[in-house]
Amino acid sequence: MVNKRAETGFGPSPGDGAGTDEAKGEGIMASEMLSEPGSEYGPCLDENCGHRDCILTRQMSESICPEYGRRIGYDERFYRSENGYVQALCIE
User: Fold this and answer.
1) Distances, alpha carbon 34 to alpha carbons 13, 18, 74, 78, 91, in Å
2) Tens of pLDDT along the chain (92 residues)?
3) DSSP codes joined into one string, 1-56
4) Based on the number of CB atoms within 10 Å of its own CB, is 90 exposed (0-12), middle (13-18) or buried (19 or more)?
């Protein structure tokens, strides 16, 4: 199986010295996940709430993954890249 992280330049690859001086410039990259609306850490259920964090979270969830072609959504891991938000399943 091809290591997509190594191919795309997202985060360290297994055995590349991640977290040491051998890491190839990038350092360790952490994935993110957006919580569902109405959950403890998610945006309000009311889509017109006006909270800046809720608005930004909804906008992020609607972003389209350039690799997979579907929206990032909620409760799915993703990474940030120069090209936008990329779902974890596309690069791991």
Assistant:
1) 25, 26, 5, 9, 18
2) 344 444 444 444 444 443 333 334 455 578 999 999 999 999 999 999 999 999 999 999 999 999 989 999 999 999 998 888 999 988 88
3) ---HHHHHT-SPPTTS-TTSTTS-SS-----B-PPPTTSTTS--SSTT---HHHHH
4) middle
Q: What is the pTM of this model?
A: 0.65
- Closest to 37 measured CA to CA, from 58, 10, 20: 58
